[in-house]
C-alpha cells in the first residue's frame, strides 16, 4: 500500500459529510424550511413523491423540534381541510 493511499481529500470528506446530512442544519436553515414546509405537508397528505427541496425539509424536521412543531400544526390544518 502506498503511503497516504487511504487518506481522503478535504473535498471527499466534505462530500461524505454532506451525503450523511450532517451539514443540513447549516445549509438549510429554519427560514428555508418554513418556506417549504407546507409543500412537504401537502405532499405527505397526498402521498405524493417528494422533490429534492422537500427531502431537505424532511431532514431538517428530523433535526429541528421547532420546525417539526410548525409542521405538525400545519399538517393538522391541512388534514382538517381535506376531511
Ligand atoms: Zn428549523
Helical fraction: over 70%
Hetero compounds: zinc ion
How many beta-strand elements?
Answer: 0
Number of helices: 5
Structural class: mainly alpha
The unreliable regions are none
Biggest sheet overview = none
- Please compute the radius of gyration using only Cα atoms: 17 Å
Which features would summarize this protein structure in a list?
83 residues; mainly alpha; elongated; binds zinc ion
Structure report:
With 83 residues, the protein is mostly helical. 72% of the residues lie in helices and 0% in strands. It has 5 helices and no strands. The structure holds zinc ion. Zinc ion (ZN) binds at residues 30, 33, 60, 64, 66-67. Zinc ion (ZN) is lined by residues 30, 33, 60, 64, 66-67.
Strand and helix map with partners:
Blueprint: H1 10-19, H2 24-27, H3 30-45, H4 52-63, H5 65-82
Helix pairs in contact: 3-4, 3-5, 4-5
The structure holds zinc ion (ZN).
The site of zinc ion has 6 residues, from helix 3 and helix 5.
What's a quick, concise take on this entry?
By secondary structure, the protein is mainly alpha-helical. It contains five helices and no strands.
Amino acid at each position: 500500500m502506498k503511503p497516504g493511499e487511504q487518506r481522503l481529500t478535504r473535498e471527499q470528506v466534505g462530500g461524505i459529510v454532506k451525503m450523511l446530512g450532517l451539514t443540513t442544519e447549516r445549509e438549510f436553515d429554519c427560514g428555508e424550511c418554513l418556506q417549504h414546509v407546507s409543500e412537504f405537508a401537502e405532499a405527505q397528505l397526498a402521498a405524493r413523491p417528494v422533490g429534492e427541496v422537500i427531502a431537505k425539509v424532511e431532514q431538517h424536521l428530523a433535526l429541528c423540534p421547532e420546525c417539526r412543531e410548525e409542521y405538525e400544526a400545519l399538517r393538522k390544518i391541512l388534514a382538517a381541510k381535506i376531511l
